[in-house]
Amino acid sequence: MKAMPGWLLQDARYQPRQDKDAFVDRSILRFLSVLSKGRARSGRIQGHGHTEPLVKVLSIIVVALLVSLTRSPAFLVLTATGLLVSLAFQEARLIARVLKTSLAVAVFTVLILLPSVFWGRGSAAVMITVKVFLSVAFVKLVSATADWASISGAFKRLGAPDLFILVFDIALKYITLLGEFALSMLYALKLRSVGRNTGKTASLGGIAGTLFLKSKEMAEDMYGAMECRGFTGEYRAAGRLRLRWRDGMVCGATGLLIALFFLTRAR
Amino acid sequence: MIELQGVTCTYGDGDVLTEVDLRIQRGEAVAIIGPNGCGKSTLLKLLNGIVLPRKGRYAFDADDITPERLKDATFAKRFHQRIGFLFQNSDTQLFCPVVHDEIAFGPRQMGLSEEQVARRVEDCIELMGIGKLRNRVPYHLSEGEKRKVALAAVLALNPEVLVLDEPMNGLDPRMKHFLREIILSLNHGGKTILCSTHDFRYIDGVFRTAVVIGEDHRVVRVGSYHEIINDKDFLRAQNII
Minimal Cα–Cα distance from A81 to chain B, Å? Predict the structure, then answer.
C-alpha cells in the first residue's frame, strides 16, 4: 500500500465559502423524510378491532362513488356524520393523521377553487371541497387500518387483473424503499457538500440516475426472486374470507348510505 | 473531541438510542459493537449530524451540534468537512458520472486550485489502488471497488474524524484485509476512527477502545477492545456472538 500523502496527515485549515443550497436541502430532505416515515409506520396497523379488507375496499369504493355523484348537501352532512362515527372508534393518533391529511387536501382544494367563488359559484366550491375532504378522509381511514398485503388480496377477490395487483404491490413496496435510498443519497450529497457546489443540478441528476438504475435492478431482482419461489404471474387471494359482526355492521352502514343517497336525491 | 451526554434518539414511536454517554479523544480508534438493530448506525449518523438527539447533548470539539447550529451553513459545511462518513451501502454515496469526478467532488467545493484538486484525486486513487477505475461509472463497479471509491471520495476532504458504518460488509477477505490496513494507517496518521462492525476477525489490532450497545439501545460497556472482545460470556449475553 502506498504511503499516506502529506496533506492527509495535516488538519485542513479550511473556511467554507457561502453557497445558496439551504432551500434544496430543506425541501428535498423533508419530502424524503416523509417517505421514510411512511415506511416506518407501514409495519404497524392501528385502529381498534378488525374489519375484513374486502369489505373495507368495497365500502370505500361505494362511498367515494356516492359522494362524488351526489348533489345533496344533506347527504354530505349525513356522510360526514358517518365519518365522525367511524373516527370515534379509532385511536387519537390515527384520528389526528386522518384529519391532518384530509384537511390539508381540503385547504389545497379551496385554494384551487377560490377564483370560482368570485364568479358567484361559492356553493359549488363548498360542495366540491366537502366531497374531496370526505373521500380523502375515508380512503385515509382505510389505508391506516388495513395493511397493504390485505388490500392486494381484496383487489384480487374483487376480480382486479393480476397485472394491476402486481404493479400495485411492487409500487407500494418500492416507493418507500426507494424513498429511503434517495434519502441516504441526499444525506451523502449534503455531507460532501462542504463548500460551493457549482453543479447542484448535475449532482441531483446523478442521484436521480442512480435511483432509476437502482429501481430497475431491485424490480428485476424481486421479480426473479418471486419466480424462484413459484410465482407465475398469477395472484391468489390468501386465506378464506371470514366475515364477522363488524363486517356486517360496515356492510349495513354502506347499505344505509346507499338508501340515504336515493332518499336525499328524491327531494 | 466528541462528547455525548445523555443522548436519546427516537425513530417513529420508539427510542433507537437511549441515554448514551460517550467521550472520544482525538486520535482514538473506537469500535462500536452491538447486535443488529441496537442503534449502531443511528449513533454514527448522529455523530455526523444526519440524525439529531431528542434529548441530551452532542458536542464536537466543544461546539454543541444542534439543529440551530447546523442551520448556519458555514458552520455545517466546516463540521461536515471535519467528520467524514462512509455509508454502509456504498451505492448511496456515489452520485457522480465517473470515479474521477466522484473523488474530485469535495475538493472542488473547498476552493482548491485545479492543480491541488488533481493532486488530491491522484493521491487518493493511488492510496486506494483504483487507477484502472478512474473513468468508470461508479454504479457499475463491484461492491469492493465501490467501497474503495466511496472511501477515496471521503478521504479527499481530509476529515479529522472518519466514521465507518460496517465497512467490511459484503467484501471478500482480500478487500477486508486491505481496508484493515488503510484504517490502521489512517489512525497512525492521526485520524480519529469510529467504526461499527461485526467482523472481528479482520479488525484485530485496529481498535484500542470498544463501545458496546445493548439490545435496549443503551451503552452497556466501554473499555479496552481487547478485553471486551475476549470476554466471550459478555458478548454471548449481549447477543453479539
Answer: 31
Inter-chain residue contact B157 with A194, CB threshold 8 Å: yes
| Residue-wise pLDDT tens digits, B71-100 | 888 888 899 999 999 999 998 899 898 999
Q: Where are the domains of chain A?
A: 51-146+239-267, 148-188+209-236
Report ipTM (2 d.p.).
0.85
Closest chain B residue to the Cα of A8, Cα to Cα: B158
Residues in A touching B110 (Cβ below 8 Å): 12, 14, 16, 194-195
Question: What is the total count of domains within chain B?
Answer: 1
Q: Which of the residues in chain B have pLDDT under 70?
A: 12-13
Pairwise CA distance, residues B181 & B101, whole Å: 25
Pairing mode, if any, of strands B63-64 and B2-11?
unpaired
For residue B225, the domain's CATH number is: 3.40.50.300
Of A14, A44, A210, the CB nearest to B110: A14
- Residue B112 domain boundaries: 2-237
- DSSP class of residue B54 equals S
DSSP E strand stretches across B153-230: 161-165, 192-196, 209-213, 219-224
Backbone angles phi, psi at B164, to 5 degrees: -120, 120
